[in-house]
Design goal:
Layout (H helix, E strand, L loop, with lengths): L2 E4 L16 H6 L11 E3 L30 H4 L3 H12 L2 E6 L2 E7 L1 H14 E2 L1 H10 L12 H15 L8 H14 L6 E2 H18 L7 H17 L10 H20 L13 H11 L6 H7 L2 H23 L1 H16 L5 H5 L2 H13 L6 E5 L3 E3 L2 E3 L4 E5 L47 H18 E6 L7 E3 L3 E3 L4 E7 L17
Parallel strand pairs: 4-10
Antiparallel strand pairs: 1-2, 3-4, 5-7, 6-14, 7-10, 8-9, 11-14, 12-13
Helix pairs in contact: 5-9, 6-11, 7-8, 7-17, 8-9, 8-13, 9-10, 9-13, 11-12, 13-14, 13-16, 13-17, 14-16, 14-17
Bound molecules: protoporphyrin IX containing FE (HEM).
Length: 515
């Protein structure tokens, strides 16, 4: 009797990975999900059954042109949104892409956004994509972003207060103070590569927001680990053996140890943070109320949530925002004026930050042109028909939701940086399914209000206290995926001089002098 020794796709020329097609292997571990199995059977007569995996049996879906072996890797490491927009305009709302040996069906355009919003929960699941990240941070069960259906809804409702911006307004002194502490360490009159510096700033802010600690000791581990995790588990642009390299295992251990320590040392902060405590409080309360949905290991892993979701996304947006502010004299002047106004009446608050209108529009325009979460990865749980194509269960889909950001019928001169498009006269972002940087469907960003607040407080703190210039002057920024779209490392800034001294309300209170 011949034995099954390996499985291969026999689609021949329609499968551009040929003998190396891994799609089938994925399917074999999930029997009965729309796959016709293919077995190459070795026996005395080396019998081959010429069947196809379902991905390759969708040859009618157009394929984006790519290089042999690496497929569309180049696009995935440079300007992914523009690439997907070009493919959408050339091939329509459904097309295939490949990255190394991973292959995806892309759904794009307003019609895809509409479909995902209305029907997404019936057809897509997120779990498979995020499993690796959950395990990497020590969780046993799927984390919120990896859950689907009613379980996801319960966890999301429970953790929502921890991700909201509201409680941060009562900790504004600390949040401004820790930024100024870090800015003080930046060398003066010397070029500084913007993205890594902003990433450190955001890591520190998220640390204070989530746990009331700066996370300074493990900052480099945080930055390295979350980048590597996204590359290995989500984008798959790095091989999985990387997670066994000493650098990765060392950083992972440091993060696990820190999360455990924060968990064990934790005492509720409700009295200090009136709007429901800090993030650790919220996670702890949820774990105590729903131990079946979140055991202790899952809860400790969940403490990393703000970093996994917020570090690269916010740092990338803030870096591009600083670039565009410095690249345009009018916008530089507006940012300085708004920053001064925010600090004019003491500690920045909800109202004063709300008046940063031009910076807010610039941040929205930054999110439109450089959406850090360019695509959403999903598996198809139940097959469906879309735009005339049958997409079977088990297909790995990329929902290219931000392709709409570059369509001229939705955004005038879409390649032009034009914050005024968000003003009351144009409101281009208000068109249905057009402006979606924070995603679509049940997993829509829970930290959107926090991210918006970060954009404003970082810009206000920087432009209030320092005169900042771009280096080299007139630099044209380029997108580099690291792993989210970020400014290239040749974009640098120079802190020229101090514009205003640090506010008095930051100074430690002086002991009263007896008269
Ligand atoms: C520029 C900033 C940000 C952008 C563009 C962004 C975008 C997104 C997108 C597109 C999703 C959906 C992912 C999916 O459906 O697979 C998402 C989910 C999420 N984001 Fe953000 N995000 C940003 C910042 C943040 C920050 C700062 C935090 C927290 C402090 C955060 C917390 C979350 C969480 C917890 C989820 C998962 C929600 C769920 O699974 O229900 N995000 N974000």
């Amino acid at each position: 009797m011949p034995t099954v020794t390996e499985s291969r796709c026999m689609a021949g020329s329609s499968c551009n990975l040929g003998q190396a097609c891994r799609h089938l292997r994925v399917r074999r571990s999930q029997p009965g999900v729309g796959l016709t199995p293919v077995f190459k059977v070795r026996g005395p007569a080396s019998l081959v059954l010429p069947l196809q995996c379902s991905f390759c049996s969708m040859p009618n879906i157009p394929q984006a042109p790519g290089a042999p072996v690496i497929g569309n890797l180049h696009a995935f490491t440079s300007d992914l949104r523009s690439f997907l927009t070009e493919q959408y305009l050339a091939l329509g709302p459904v097309f295939r892409v490949s990255v190394l040996n991973h292959r995806y069906v892309v759904l794009a355009g307003p019609e895809a956004n509409e479909f995902v919003t209305r029907k997404g929960t019936d057809h897509f699941v997120a779990q498979e994509i995020w499993d690796g990240v959950t395990k990497a941070v020590g969780g046993e069960n799927p984390s919120m972003i990896a859950l689907d259906g009613p379980r996801h809804a319960i966890v999301r409702r429970g953790l929502k207060p921890g991700y909201a911006a509201g409680p941060l307004y009562s900790r504004m002194v600390k949040l401004i103070g820790c930024q100024l502490d870090l800015l003080r360490q930046w060398p003066r009159a010397q070029p500084l590569t913007v993205f890594p510096q902003v990433k450190r700033l955001v890591a520190m802010l998220l640390g204070y927001m989530a746990t009331n600690e700066s996370a300074e000791d493990v900052m480099d581990d945080f930055i390295y680990l979350f980048k590597a995790m996204l590359q290995i588990h989500v984008f798959k642009t790095r091989p999985s053996f990387m997670q066994h390299l000493p650098r990765y295992t060392r950083s992972r251990q440091a993060i696990l140890d820190m999360a455990r320590r924060i968990w064990l040392d934790h005492t509720y902060m409700d009295d200090m943070v009136p709007e429901g405590g800090n993030f650790v409080d919220v996670v702890r309360r949820f774990h105590e109320e729903h131990p079946d949905l979140m055991n202790e290991r899952d809860a400790i892993a969940a403490l990393n949530g703000p970093f996994i979701a917020g570090l690269d996304t916010a740092a990338s947006t803030i870096s591009f925002l600083i670039y565009h502010i410095l690249a345009d004299r009018d916008l530089t002047a507006a940012a300085i004026e708004e920053a001064d106004a925010v600090f004019a009446d003491g500690v920045p608050n909800r109202n004063s930050l709300r008046s940063m209108i031009r910076v807010r529009w610039a941040a929205m325009e930054t999110l439109r042109l450089y959406p850090p979460a360019t695509v959403l990865s999903r598996s198809v749980s139940q097959g469906f028909r879309f735009a005339g194509f049958d997409i079977p269960a088990g297909t790995h889909c990329m929902l290219a939701h931000t392709v709409t950001h570059g369509l001229p019928e939705l955004f005038k001169d879409p390649d032009c940086f034009d914050p005024e498009r968000f003003g009351p006269e144009r409101r281009e972002h208000m068109q249905p399914n057009a402006f979606v940087p924070y995603g679509l469907g049940p997993h829509t960003c829970l930290g959107a209000s926090t991210a918006d607040l970060l954009f404003l407080i970082v810009t206000a703190t920087l432009f209030r206290h320092y005169e900042v210039t771009m280096d080299p002057p007139g630099h044209k920024v380029r997108i580099k995926m690291q792993p989210l779209p970020s400014p290239d490392n040749r974009f640098r800034l120079i802190l020229q001089s101090v514009r205003h001294p640090e506010p008095e309300w930051l100074l430690p209170a002086q002991p009263a002098v007896a008269s």
